[in-house]
């Protein structure tokens, strides 16, 4: 395997729990990470978001110690952790598959890491009981994994990862195996647990909604680079590129010189009668989502518009093929890069 060439490290004085400094990683001719610099603050819930192959899981694995960077540095509490074995790092990782030991009951699964670290039996038992209460599994400590539901297995994996009191918990697509309702409930529970404990969480996900719900800040990744970092509202409302605008939710884009103007679907007004400044079109798709309806409107010229409106009487009778008029205020249009 060819190694990436070393790259210069850019210095910064801002305090952080985790710092990636110009990190690169190659797998053969593929540059999985290309000069990634990123800070994660103590006590925050941080999300790495991006499509498959963007480098987010590779970045997490480097922090966990399952691989080493080909260039740059990774600092934890200001210390370079290069060469430090995974079990020597003050981090825990919760895998997508949960990786529970099938022959151990819940109690022993949660306490496995404590036993490996040499905790005294009484102290370890207290910590296991505390973690089971935290994830609301007290009373199930004698069950084996094959006697648990998917959601309960997820809770055991979370309790096991938190038990050794890590400085940072790494979550690799932890909710991917859950059904939608349980996944949404668990997202809120994860956020509540993180706030209660004050432990730094870093989650890898390709689910935009999940990142928006749980994270204090999001790093959107593309082709091994950081496309944008910021709080969910900022990244969604003020995307810096067309890629971020389209990846983080739906976006209507209009060419504007060297860049684009973006208007989110919920910012577009839809009417069954012509109004001043509106654009004519015809409904080509309708999707009902309970509290809102998504319309695709094919314009006479130009790209189709995606429009999301809360349900109201005026639009309730619309059918595919009906003529409509769309409009938006100048403030709704955000300029983004190419």
Task: Explain what you see.
The protein has eight helices and 18 strands. It folds into two domains: about 45-55 and about 85-235, P-loop containing nucleotide triphosphate hydrolases (Rossmann fold), CATH 3.40.50.300; about 250-335, Nucleic acid-binding proteins (OB fold (Dihydrolipoamide Acetyltransferase, E2P)), CATH 2.40.50. About 25% of the residues lie in helices and about 30% in strands. A hairpin with a 2-residue loop joins strand 9 (about 215-220) and strand 10 (about 225-230). The protein has a six-stranded mixed sheet with strand order 6-7-8-3-9-10, sandwiched between helices. The radius of gyration is 24 Å and the shape is globular. It is of the alpha+beta class and about 350 residues long.
Number of domains: 2
Low-confidence stretches: 5-14
The Rg value, from CA coordinates, equals 24 Å
Return the structural class: alpha+beta
The profile of the biggest β sheet is:
6 strands, mixed
What sort of overall outline do the alpha carbons produce when their principal axes are compared?
globular
CATH topology of the largest domain: Rossmann fold
Question: Mind telling me which CATH architecture of the largest domain this is?
Answer: 3-Layer(aba) Sandwich
H-E string: EEEHEEEHHHEHEHEEHHEEEEEEEE
The count of DSSP E runs of length 2 or more, i.e. the number of strands, is: 18
**Could you give the order of strands across the largest sheet?**
6-7-8-3-9-10
- Counting H and I runs of at least 4 residues, what is the number of helices? 8
Distance between the termini: 34 Å
As a percent range, the share of helical residues equals 10-25%
Mean pLDDT: 91
Beta-strand content bin:
25-35%
| CATH class value of the largest domain | Alpha Beta
